[in-house]
Every structure is written in structure tokens, then in C-alpha cells.
Amino acid sequence: MSIDVDTARRVAKLARIRVDESDLPALADELNGIVTFMEQLNAVNVDGVEPMTGVTPMRLKRREDVVTDGNMPERILKNAPDAREGFFAVPKVVE
Q1: Residue 77 belongs to what H/E stretch?
Q2: What does the DSSP assignment read for 17-56?
Q3: Measured CA distances, 3 to 10, 30, 42, 49, 55 (Å)
């Protein structure tokens, strides 16, 4: 498949991209390069090849899911506008 200047103009219009007439030949060449690369990819036999999520197979590091206080309550409460006895102090909302 070959993309000419008229096709490049139509693609630009469909994509809502303003392209100057002088830039259309370069756009057509670039689109031809993309189509050529896609044709090369289609020629590759991928029967029996498992899909990959990454280039190198690796298992993600995992940590134990444990609830903690962060071991720094003083630093956390330092940001609170009001803290009492190691807790955030908030206004009473229930009567």
C-alpha cells in the first residue's frame, strides 16, 4: 500500500490536523514508512508466542501486608492543627 499526497491530505483532515501544502509530501513519506513497518511486522510468524507484559520476565517485589502506625507518630501529629494524647483532636459533631 502506498500513500500519496492526496491520501495524506485526507488523513490530516480526518485527524483534524492542519498541514501546509508544502509539508504534505513529507507527511506522505512518513506515513509510508509507518505502513511499511506495519507490513514487516505482519510478516513475522508469531504462532505459539505468548504475549508479554514486559521485555524481561521478572516477578514484582512484594511486601507483607501489615497494618502499622508508621513508627513515627510524633512526626505525623506534628502536622495536625490539634493533637492530644497521641491522637488527632477534632471538633465534636455528634450531640
Answers
A1: helix 73-77
A2: ----GGGHHHHHHHHHHHHHHHHHHHTS--TTPPP-SSSS
A3: 10, 9, 18, 32, 33
pLDDT in tens, 28-75: 999 999 999 999 999 999 898 888 777 777 777 888 888 886 888 889
Identify residue 91 by its one-letter amino acid code. Answer: P
Q: Rounded to 5 degrees, what are φ and ψ at 84?
A: -140, 135
Per the structure block, which three cell numbers stand in for 95?
A: 450531640
Q: What is each CA distance from 34 to 39, 40, 50, 75, 92, in whole angstroms?
A: 9, 10, 25, 55, 65
Residue 2, all three cell numbers = 502506498
